[in-house]
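**User:**
If convenient, please work through this fold.
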Amino acid sequence: MSPSRVSVIIPAYNRCDLLKKAVDSVLGQTRKDFELIVVDDGSTDGTAALLASYGECLHSIRQENKGPSAARNRGIAEARGELVAFLDSDDCWEKEKLSSQIEAMEANPEYPISHTQEVWFRRGELLPQKKIHRKPHGWIFAQCLPLCCVSASTVVARRSLLEEAGGFDESFPCCGDYDLWIRLSVKHPFLLVDKPLAWKDGGRPDQVSFRHRVGMDRYRIAALEKILIRPGFLSPEQGEMALRELERKCRIYGNGCLKHGKIEEGRRYLGLPERLRPSGSPEDVHEFARICTND
């Protein structure tokens, strides 16, 4: 194993055919002071044999299937590096990704976390990105609220920052990254290395985002609810921004439920913003959060 200035974590579940490309893109980095940790999240395909074929080039951990958030957290717990980088098992990196990002963070030590631009492709074809999908720099809390504006496969962060934040919320079957970036962006600026250093492969039915594409906003709503009920966590301005975004998401999702005959669920979401105001019942709010994250 190489010296671990940075720990690279790949969560993997039944992606043997794509995982090799991800692993090779890490091992081919121009910067070599890293350890590679692959968390096999209960795969039933040839993932274990593939990882074994790399020998001591990587550290393989196997656990029962718990989802990507739990797999990333297991990697963080095992990491020895001062910095942690994430890569999804169906994505890959440009060879200078780690060197560019770590050098940028060393030159800007006030930033405890960084990310990069990325290239999207689907079935081998490049996908154009809209302006809204360009990655932001600095104090990005406002940009994090409408959508997940940070891609996990582009992130390098101080391990201490992730540990202090409690890592990824394992109760979220999807949108765990949205939840974490929001929590971190409340208190910390994000450094953008403005280069497309990661390649993101999308649109496949095995992806978490595809499986939960219907009703995904209920998990984002739950993430907003978490920070809104946390005493003293948000500034008044941040609280107002988060509440406005929650109202927007609840209106869209709640009306969608009503349209499809889910009357009780729709009314519950449409009424959530009022319950989250200072006069709202904490018991109602926590019960709502439990419902939101119960997949």
